[in-house]
Amino acid sequence: MLISARSKRPFWPARRGATPSILAADRSAAVCCGLYSTAADPNGPSLNPAFGYQNAVVTDGIDFEGCTVSAPLLVSGVRIMDGPRGAFLLRDARLKQLSMQDCHVEGSLVADSAQVENGVLIAGGRIEGQILARGAQLGGALAIEGTQVGDGRKALTGSGLRLSGPLILRRTQLKGDVKLARCQLNAGIYAENTTIDGNSCGFDAESAPIDGDFLPLTRGFLRAYAWLMHGCWGAWKPPVSQSVPPKRQSRPGA
Question: Which of 139, 142, 94 is nearest to 122 (CA)?
């Protein structure tokens, strides 16, 4: 349920498996949130070219699981509380674009098997859980800039992720492991002034084909180590600071 900072009225964004829609009684709340245009339309309210949540508090999470959203989804200055099924659910959703700016997510952003046509931008704010994008297909870039992400164990889990643009981690603090095993990154990885405070593996890109440059942790830090076994990348540039796993000691007589 969404509470608009201006209307103070509840709004349920969508039902699963359908394009987001509203009831007549909820039109005023939706207009206050910028979700639908106010122009007269005999067929009812129409979607704006871009819509979303702004300066609001969301209780019980946002659930767009299985939904199709034909316009860019913009979320700005929003506090999203964790709900019974999660904080921000985009599992199996079909989106035009996703932009989150200065948001506080009190849980995980779940986008497993989602399809996003024009990329994802997460700028500023904090995600207390992890970002899940297992098996997702993203056109354009996945950019996380100036954001704190992770629950201390995991920060980004994108096994099997297919990304046509670059993975950008700029001025970001990742509290937990980054797992990108078997993902396909078609435009490289760029991490500038980023900290990965890993729990077990730090950065895992096992068996991941990476086309383009791989610029890990430029002027950043990696606590734990990077696991790149069987990976394949177009260009490799060693990071400035990176620790490696300790060598195993042979037992006497072995």
Answer: 142
CA distance 83 to 10: 15
The answer to whether 155 touches 196, Cβ cutoff 8 Å, is: yes
**Cα of 133 vs its chain's centroid, Å:** 7
What average pLDDT is seen over the chain?
A: 75
CA nearest 173: which of 141, 206, 149? 149
CA–CA gap between residue 166 and residue 146 (Å, rounded): 17
Which of 1, 119, 129, 127 lies closest to 60 in space, CA to CA? Answer: 1
| The pairing of beta strand 56-58 with beta strand 62-63 | unpaired
Number of C-beta neighbours around residue 84 at 10 A? 7
Lookup result for tokens 């992720």: 161
Name the nearest CA neighbour of 36 among 59, 15, 53, 56: 53
**Mean pLDDT (whole number) for 175-189:** 91
**CB 79 within 8 Å of CB 106:** yes
**Which residues contact residue 70 at a Cβ distance below 8 angstroms, ignoring those fewer than 6 apart?**
19, 47, 96
- Dist. CA 3–CA 244, nearest whole Å: 47
Run of H or E including 73: strand 73-76
Report pLDDT for 48.
47
The model's pTM is 0.73
Contacts for 41 with CB less than 8 Å, ≥ 6 apart: none
CA distance 103 to 192: 21
